[in-house]
Amino acid sequence: MPMDNRKLQRLICIVLFVFAFVLYGNTIQNEYALDDEMVTNNDQIRGGISAIPEIFTTNYRITEEYNYGYRPITKSTFALEYQLFGDNPHISHFINVLIYAFTGIFLFLLLVNLLKDYHLFFPMIISLLFMAHPIHTEVVASLKNREELISFLCSLAALRLLFKSVDTFRVLYIIGGILLFIIGFFAKQNAATFVVVIPLTLYFFSQISLPIIHKSQLSINLAVTNIGVPITRLILPFVGLGFYVAGVTLNGYYLIGVISLVFVDQWNSSRRKRRDSSFILSIKNALIIGVCFSLAIFNEVVLKFELIKPLLVFISLPYFLYIRNLIIEMSHGADSRGRFRSNSILLIGFMFFVMAEVILDRSFLLFAFVLLVMELTMSIRVAGQNWKKLFVNPYFIAGLVAMLVTEYVYKILHFQPEEISRGLMFSTYPMLVIYLIYFIDKNMLFSTYLNKLKEFYGRLNAIHISKTVMISLGVLASLAITTYALMVLPTALLPPEHREIFYFENPLVNETGFSDLIGTGFYTLLVYIKLLFLPHPLLFYYGFDHISVVGMSDTWVIISVIIHVMLLGYALMRLRKKHVLSYAILYYLATIFVFSNILFKIPGIIGERLLYMPSLGFCIALAYFIFKIMKLDPKSSLTGSGIKLKLAFMLALIIIPYSVKTIARNYDWKNHLTLYLHDIPNLEKSLYANSLAGSEVLRNINQNPANTSELNENRDKLQLVIKFFNNVLELDANDKHALNNLGTVYYSFFQEYETAIPYFQKALSADSSFAIASFNMAYCLDQTGNSSTAIKYYQRTIKLQPTDIKSISNLANLYHKLGDFSQAVRLNKKITEIDPSSEIPYMNMANYYLQRSDEATAVEYFEKAAALALENYELCLNLSDYFKEQGNSQKALYYSDLARKAGSRIQQ
């Protein structure tokens, strides 16, 4: 590379670094905002470096309601940061901007490596567009989303090293790339999308090609691959995870043999190509169906997605029929398939029913037995043999006994019924086909089958496979094994996850219709495309009912389907030519589809942060069209200052508005309140957004306004709170939190207890176990003089929360007010048992004795309370004054000193 080009690269890297701080430097002054408390306000982070081992052995978020995720890398950065700088949001924002700056540099250097035939301006323009795009403001300005920054940065770095390993044939690069991929994955699992991006990139920008595959080579290998995986899965419960991974690795040897045929074109004869051309599509389909199905059906992570199950029913039919015909062809020759075609046609209906039953988690043994009988009976009839031999054949008896024993062992080991069904069905059926062939033709021994495999691999080893192909296969195999381990190990080692998605986060949790699922999914994808082209308005949250559930007949859904089908079609048309626009589209679709709500439900339905990775594909396409609009070839030398000036002007027309929008948006992310109040006018139909805004404004109301100005400000804020929670109730009249919060506003700030009571009643009707509403109800009834009903609600609250000191204290005080001194004493004694360090029961008892004119006993209790609440300024000051009046200067001085210390702490 010429020296001037290297200097230009360094200059561009410096520009990108500075550009990141120009765009996001104003976020450094920001405070904490949406969800930042997940990674800043918890005991693990405050533990500093010493907490990192615990971070790596616990889930990402652990609260009373949630326990999910595994993102130790991100949390560890905040723990390290806390160790060095303490609780400092400005340092945290600076680090986010720094990571973003390095992302821009790494992206540029990666694109330079990939786009070797293109002018240096092309990767530079892509990088500038990517960095300036306003859709990234949530990722950079939100501290919680540092996980996105680290994940993408490490994924890019991993891709660069793995690509270099293919160029240089150095295994060290593979190791480094895999390690970076692991770090990115443990920052956030979004990195898993690069399992698709990496082979896609290797294909587009390396010397790998897609030649024609010959039928006879693929047939045997495909059969071995797909029979091997089910067998391996069958023994999983008995040999453990380690042996399973080893088994998958061993089976990967066969899989590599299949994949290698994709990249090796030894069939150069044009006549042979023409002869095989009609078979190419079916072979490719068989490869995709067989490999993907075998891997997917035994992956519990994949099977969590409900849509996968019905799809597997359809995929399984051609898969099993194809494998069956392959084995028949291997044993009897290609001309023998006609003899077995009739029973294949007759069996397909019943097979469909059986597969549907099994995949949908229903019984296996009965259907498997009937299927086996039908298969063997029809085959015997075709072969002209005695059907009675079916039941006296030792192989059939042994197989049936093995199936029964296996199911019994599975049940002893407490495996779920669906695990039993899948394990038996997909492990047994391919073996039944082999048994069928042996039964029909006893001259066909399994050794013959193995000899055919040996012959095949002998031919395969004689084929010259380039180093590029072998290194690429090594990269893909390493990546596949690593990804599988990363997905399985946290699940195996950590406690079970609990993350319930509520309807207001994603209404699809209550929808089971296929039309709604697909319709809403494609509508989501259309919104993402709109945000890429027009990033306005940008919102901190979407959710129900800002994004509604729509069916497949919706106009926007139909438009979205057309757009995405056209994009995919164009990308596939240009796939073999390795067109950069094809890569951009496939990259975008591969990284965005997982967030479409089709595979699984996304909290919030849409998230701007989720476009961070996919937006790179958009920026590549946008840069390409900038060159095309200017009628320039991105691969040309771009000589002449006039051309470069026009290109710069065209780029500025996009970059400047992007940058202005980005910088302006950063100010909205200053803190929770500024963000919510700025966005909420565009989110009136978002239930959760209104709930968040209302709660945040409520928290920011000054409880003790000092002047008229603060009083008026409080009044304005209270009107906003009422408006936001009423918006929530318009969307869901039974939202218990909005009802409770509105009731709290009316009694706490307006003392309108009668107005508040119906809100609490309705909240309890929505959820009878809602303890906070029960307490508020009791308090309001107490204030309105309805003591008997108030006692019932206090007792109800205590039953729901037996250790709630505030409820017990209020009930004790109510009993004392009603003259039941013994009940009041009993309840205060209960508080001391729940929390011996609480001063509340002693304060209560002191007040009781004051009302009984027993000043001496009251003072004793006040002293006990002061010993537990040294920060209580008023209590210590009152005790000091009391003992001063009593002439006890020693105690007066003691409590005066405590009051002075408490007062100084309050001022701090």
Task: Outline the secondary-structure elements.
Layout (H helix, E strand, L loop, with lengths): L2 H22 L12 H4 L2 H4 L5 H4 L5 E2 L4 E2 L3 H14 L3 H26 L6 H12 L4 H5 L4 H23 L2 H17 L6 H12 L9 H20 L1 H28 L6 H28 L2 H4 L4 H25 L4 H23 L5 H19 L5 H4 L1 H19 L4 H24 L5 H17 L4 H27 L20 H20 L21 H19 L6 H13 L22 H15 L11 H28 L3 H8 L7 H13 L8 H24 L4 H13 L4 H14 L4 H13 L3 H14 L4 H13 L3 H14 L5 H12 L3 H14 L4 H13 L3 H19 L1
Antiparallel strand pairs: 1-2
Helix pairs in contact: 1-6, 1-7, 5-10, 6-7, 6-9, 7-27, 7-28, 9-10, 9-11, 9-23, 10-23, 11-23, 11-26, 12-13, 12-14, 12-16, 12-21, 12-22, 13-23, 14-16, 16-17, 16-21, 17-18, 18-21, 20-21, 24-25, 25-26, 26-27, 29-30, 30-31, 31-32, 32-33, 32-34, 33-34, 34-35, 35-36, 36-37, 36-38, 37-38, 38-39, ...
